[in-house]
Amino acid sequence: MKVLLTGGHGQLGKEIAILLKKKDIEHVACSREDLDITSLEAVQSEVFDYKPDVIIHAAAYTQVDLAETNEEEAFLVNGTGTRNLAEAAQEIGACLCYISTDYVFDGESDRPYKEDASTNPITVYGKSKYVGEQFVKNCNKYFIVRTSWVFGAHGNNFVKTMLKLAEERETLQVVSDQVGSPTYTADLASFLLELIHTDKYGMYHATNTGHCSWYEFARAIFEETNKGIDVKPVSTEEFLRPAPRPKFSVLDHAAIRKNHFQDLRHWREALQAFLREIGAK
């Protein structure tokens, strides 16, 4: 198997690249500098020359707040860039595995979203990722994997931010009315590699199991690292951001169950593993 990976220097991409190397799978991991996915010519040149069996598309414009005022770039990367990869993948008969997001939902549900639930993105970022999903569906062989609240060793994330703030402050306010599922990049990368070795194509939701609020997540981080910081819950209205956040974006893993994959471990167990990985536990 030959794998072309976009976003190879990103938080998830680096984790995937490490795992591909560990499993001795032939691959090319492209950074933004290596491959401009917004250029159809550049994408075709890379894909037609390398002829991968699978393209894992982890590159994305992920700056949720900045996207609200930078809509053109968000759609260029997440929409046009994905379309370019989809067209090239289809032309050579490659499978395209696209990493999407819980932000395609509005967060107004009171139960976990299944893969076939109605989408209604409320941010530019979410809308641009949804557009990307539609382009991917033009491929004969594709996986769309929606995930959420990603954390790992190779980039900035909520866990690292909380640990840094714990060294600087005695008290901290964290939003308590947004609920989702944290996802450890090591676990998500393992699932993706398992997935691409099958022909069980389609839409998947993949997060660590269980769910929590950002406040509960922060409390867990400090409990696991024995930090004595005082964490106070606040509402979304008290902590306004340029882009609205889904209030409830827990993803149901119906496709994982249906296709008999091993589900990802509980987020608290994954958090413990991550903290050990970075030497914080």
Mind explaining what this structure looks like?
This protein has 281 residues and is α/β, with parallel strands linked by helices. 40% of the residues lie in helices and 17% in strands. The chain has helices spanning 11-22, 40-50, 64-67, 71-92, 124-136, 158-168, 185-196, 214-224, 254-258, 267-277; strands at residues 2-6, 26-30, 54-57, 95-101, 142-147, 150-151, 171-175, 179-180, 183-184, 202-205, 212-213, 230-234. A six-stranded parallel β-sheet has the order 2-1-3-4-5-10, sandwiched between helices. Strands 6-9 form a two-stranded parallel ribbon. The protein has a two-stranded parallel sheet with strand order 7-12. Helix 1 (11-22) links the parallel strand 1 and strand 2. Helix 6 (158-168) crosses helix 8. The longest helix has 22 residues, at 71-92. The mean pLDDT is 97.
Describe how the helices and strands are arranged.
Layout: E1 2-6, H1 11-22, E2 26-30, H2 40-50, E3 54-57, H3 64-67, H4 71-92, E4 95-101, H5 124-136, E5 142-147, E6 150-151, H6 158-168, E7 171-175, E8 179-180, E9 183-184, H7 185-196, E10 202-205, E11 212-213, H8 214-224, E12 230-234, H9 254-258, H10 267-277
Parallel strand pairs: 1-2, 1-3, 3-4, 4-5, 5-10, 6-9, 7-12
Antiparallel strand pairs: 8-11
Q: Quick recap of the structure?
A:
The chain contains ten helices and twelve strands. By secondary structure, it is of the alpha/beta class.
List keywords for this structure.
6-stranded parallel sheet, globular, 12 strands, 10 helices, alpha/beta
